[in-house]
């Protein structure tokens, strides 16, 4: 791109040639300003995320202490996202509504639950979010079960930087019973597996008294129909506050046949 002078359209580095006006003096070329496009892009995303955060906290209000923990968690997630795919890149502008508020809404469905198990925690939804929200609750704990080592490492760091009551288990999801010690009040999962498989993973914990809350999408009816082929269930459905999804609540299950 040619540099232009403050009062005209002629390049500053060009000298007057024969037949051209003699009143123009040549001057030194101006240095082309450097624009950090990456930084500009990050700043734009920061602004979008800040607006999304305000909307999310209207849907799921939290204390100032919890908000600060969630801020640290989101900052860490964005840092790790550059090298480890923790969430779908398309959802980054809506981290707070799509992921944070979506996770926080579970607390209203199990207000007395202190001990949670999150199966297939991945990027920490809903497990790390629940741990952040319950950091000031005596006796609270969240077991995060994850089979991918990189994601388990992220979860451990997220629990550390947010000083939240979480325990990370690097294990296959079906091995969660052997890893989790003590009673569990509520077991949850998000974007992990079809409902009939989730019930199979959760059934040992539910047999010990845990309630299940599974975050599901628009096709929940089809998943319930399929699950009924394998399990006797009496589900209660709750519409998600943050989109078109549903939360499937189960208090007991029994395998068919």
Automatic annotation (TrEMBL):
EC number of the protein: 2.1.1.170
Catalytic activity as recorded in UniProt: guanosine(527) in 16S rRNA + S-adenosyl-L-methionine = N(7)-methylguanosine(527) in 16S rRNA + S-adenosyl-L-homocysteine
Region (Disordered) residue spans: 1-43
Annotated signal peptide: none
GO cellular component: cytosol
Keywords from the named record: Cytoplasm, Methyltransferase, rRNA processing, S-adenosyl-L-methionine, Transferase
Residue sites binding S-adenosyl-L-methionine per the record: 120, 125, 190
Highest taxon above the source species: Bacteria
Record field: compositional bias (Basic and acidic residues): 33-43
Entries under InterPro entries matching the protein: rRNA_ssu_MeTfrase_G (IPR003682), SAM-dependent_MTases_sf (IPR029063)
Molecular function in Gene Ontology: rRNA (guanine-N7-)-methyltransferase activity
Subcellular location(s) of the protein: Cytoplasm
Pfam families referenced in this protein's UniProt entry, alphabetically: GidB
Purpose of the protein: Specifically methylates the N7 position of guanine in position 527 of 16S rRNA.
Recorded family membership: Belongs to the methyltransferase superfamily. RNA methyltransferase RsmG family.
HAMAP family tied to this protein: 16SrRNA_methyltr_G
The protein's name in its UniProt record: Ribosomal RNA small subunit methyltransferase G
UniProt source species: Bradyrhizobium nitroreducens
């Amino acid at each position: 791109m040619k540099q232009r002078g403050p009062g005209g359209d002629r390049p500053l580095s060009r000298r007057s040639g024969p037949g051209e006006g003699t009143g123009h003096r040549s001057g030194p070329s101006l240095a082309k300003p450097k624009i950090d496009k990456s930084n500009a892009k990050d700043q734009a995303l920061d602004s979008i995320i800040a607006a999304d955060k305000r909307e999310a906290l209207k849907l799921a209000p939290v204390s100032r202490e919890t908000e600060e923990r969630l801020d640290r968690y989101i900052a860490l997630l964005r840092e790790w996202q550059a090298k480890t795919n923790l969430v779908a890149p398309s959802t980054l502008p809506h981290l707070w509504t799509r992921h944070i508020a979506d996770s926080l809404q579970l607390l209203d469905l199990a207000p007395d639950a202190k001990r949670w198990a999150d199966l297939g925690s991945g990027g920490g939804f809903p497990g790390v979010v629940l741990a952040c929200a319950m950091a000031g609750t005596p006796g609270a704990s969240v077991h995060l079960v994850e089979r991918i080592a990189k994601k388990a490492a992220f979860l451990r760091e997220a629990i550390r930087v947010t000083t939240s009551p979480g325990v990370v288990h690097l294990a296959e999801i079906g091995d969660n019973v052997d890893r989790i010690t003590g009673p569990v009040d509520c077991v949850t999962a998000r974007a992990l597996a079809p409902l009939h498989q989730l019930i199979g993973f959760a059934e040992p914990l539910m047999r010990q008294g845990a309630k299940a809350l599974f975050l599901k999408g628009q096709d929940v009816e089809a998943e319930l129909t399929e699950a009924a082929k394998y399990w006797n269930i009496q589900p209660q459905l709750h519409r998600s506050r943050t989109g078109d999804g549903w939360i499937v609540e189960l208090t007991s299950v029994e395998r068919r046949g």
